[in-house]
Amino acid sequence: QGKQKKARKYAVMKRMISLRDERLKEKDRVKAPVKKKEDPSAIKEREVPQHPSCLFFQYNTQLGPPYHILVDTNFINFSIKAKLDLVQSMMDCLYAKCIPCITDCVMGEIEKLGQKYRVALRIAKDPRFERLPCMHKGTYADDCLVQRVTQHKCYIVATVDKELKRRIRKIPGVPIMYISRHR
Questions:
Q1: 146 alpha carbon, distance to own chain's centre
Q2: Strand duo 67-71 + 155-158: pairing
Q3: Other residues' Cβ atoms within 10 Å of the Cβ of residue 150
Q4: Which contacts qualify for 47-50: CB closer than 8 Å, 24 or more apart?
Q5: What is the pLDDT of residues 12-71, one digit of tens each?
Q6: Nearest 10 degrees: CA dihedral of 93, 94, 97, 98?
Q7: Model pTM?
Q8: Residues forming a β-bridge with 161
Q9: What is the mean pLDDT of the chain?
Q10: How many of the other CB atoms lie within 10 Å of CB of 65?
Q11: Whole-number CA gyration radius for the chain
């Protein structure tokens, strides 16, 4: 009349001897850890993350009018697609002098993209752009930008990448500049 289904028994597992079992020899047995009594007069230490001194609550005091803007690869590409002059549109956005900064990792990423992105490479080599040397291993630009922004809170990050924006939003006091609706 049909195959009978075997019901699995609930919470079946291999039987193992506990390390505190009486059948084990004395040398194989695990000894119960001895708890030390805490001294109530002793000062309790806790690991508290050090907050940067430049932050006054959520306001970053290191950001000042000659704004230093860290530019990402896709920001340059999107500015080309939107037909925006990068430096001029940054100044229009912030109503102040802007110094676009480009790291070695971002430069390497643009060079790896090849001949198709030669216009982006020419824009990145513009003398108005400030070059920032990288001392770390690897050329992953997103990690480089996040690391630089965590160390020095004096930068605005210009990116269109959703994943990078999500990572930077977790760092307090770092503004993000992006292109939307060709602006």
A1: 5
A2: parallel
A3: 13
A4: none
A5: 666 677 777 777 777 766 666 677 776 766 666 666 667 777 777 667 788 888 899 999
A6: -70
A7: 0.69
A8: none
A9: 84
A10: 9
A11: 28
Alpha-carbon span 124 to 141, nearest angstrom: 14
Amino acid, single-letter form, for residue 46: R
Structure tokens at 88: 């001029």
Phi-psi map region of 63: left, alpha, beta (phi>0 left; psi -120 to 50 alpha): beta
Q: What are the tokens at 44?
A: 């309790």
Nearest residue to 122 via CA among 66, 59, 79, 70 = 79
- For residues 103 and 39, what is the distance between their CA atoms, to the nearest angstrom? 52
> Domains in the chain, ordered, with CATH?
53-175 (3.40.50.1010)
Sheet bearing 67-71, strands edge to edge: 130-132, 98-103, 67-71, 155-158, 176-177
Residue type, 139: T
User: What are the C-alpha distances in Å from 53 to residues 59, 61, 97, 151?
Assistant: 11, 9, 25, 12
